[in-house]
């Protein structure tokens, strides 16, 4: 089956599947090789993604959003290295004008991919409707499962937010007695404030889904901070751990703003392409004590 | 000037809020005009600086902070006083004062890895040394970090932020999308703040300035017309951005053309300068001149090639925004543009002083080097910070510039 690789929460897996592709989400870890031609102060995710793409030429291609500066450069470098890459321009703002713009771009991406897969547009729209319904079902299942785990556990419930590398901390967090609610890039199920109702136009529904997804720190506005705070309140979370990439400007700005708005203990753990597990372990121990002491 | 006591900080803040104090600068301005009725370029720049300080700190109108690539013509048409914090922070660095706001930003949890232009402006805002804005305007053009930066400014100042999302590919749909956003912003200002847009005058000044700057560009193609010291033109950034659309920029362009009407000292090597430069250091231009490295073109001072049309102002400005984005921040727009400039100015190579916190330029370094070397042009990529002198390594800089000079001489171009 044709496969496409991607790394961004704004690249809709639903669309890729509806176009007849298997979508593979890139999950790096701290041993992933990096693309060495990029300078030091640059996004660790993009360095590892480019390396991964170059080593997986068997994939039909890669879908890269033109969002932050790093992802833009990733697209340009892959293109220059003759790797099949499909761009997706995503608006950085909410609103009607931005929604229309995104729908047009999703339409354009779909047509490019359908030209590769040979599927018809009507097959695509029917399939897209089904995958969107499945996403909403999986979302409900995700929250149900979380509530069940929460109810059955006496661990400290915690929000883990952050970069693509953050999932590597899950075993350590569990070892330290935390029950983790993940706001991680591969989590497609976190939505913002408004519920999503499907209409007769699947592409417009997909636009609304993308723009209602819990935003990446890159996305403009305070929606993400408000949604995270609401999530913490609704789910009764007692602390926040942010695992951020050293050269991700949006996470860096967010940390400066978030510390004031959560009203909960916040622990920030920085990484580049390597980890600092011993240091993180010590800091998590101290963080746990801080939460337990109230 | 980096360590200031809290008492002195309070006094400074107090004085900066006293509008009347700054409005009294009017008398000083008048005296300067009488003393220098036909000022040279440095004298003119000084007069403009005093006038700008009077306008901003005297609050002689509503103040609009804008990101570097938000078109100032829009702000002038709305009768707002533009203030470009990134440019102002460069001036703060040139006055050797920037470590204080950088420290203030870091104390407020804004990482050292963020761009120092943004961090410095955040610090100046936290210290309340910059004039309080009434509005904020930004685009995601060139550098998307600007969006995060202006979001922080909105939180600090609690004023409206008008953001234009700029697509990364310039298409007709992209023009329509950007123009729609500008229209929305204009309508919001008209409706909520009773702003009236008058396009003719700003567009006239902008277009006329542009024409003269093209004449200046033609002059700089001559071997005996160099702007000295090298990179001096980057000190004039306010005229290319903040004052564009005002008579000030037109007067500047006329003076610049006059300065180039006389033959200058000839430096043996002609180079193109990419991105910006360290503003805290007067040593770099001196060193460049000493090594015979002349700068004949800077990409950040290239005027928009099209005339702005008052008949369709927002469409014109949308095209200007997209042009800047493509020309400076995409590999398919920027690199061919640099190659054309190298040829047009008969330059031997290029220098880029890559800003530590600038992801978009850091990410393009590989492609830039490859394409320029392929075309036969040596390129020197210097690393450091444009504002934060903690990242300054003068001896390393000297060594690399000397080595680059040897490369140029070895190519036997002169």
From TrEMBL, chain A:
InterPro entries: FldB/FldC_alpha/beta. Pfam families: HGD-D. Belongs to the FldB/FldC dehydratase alpha/beta subunit family. This is 2-hydroxyacyl-CoA dehydratase. It comes from Candidatus Caldatribacterium saccharofermentans.
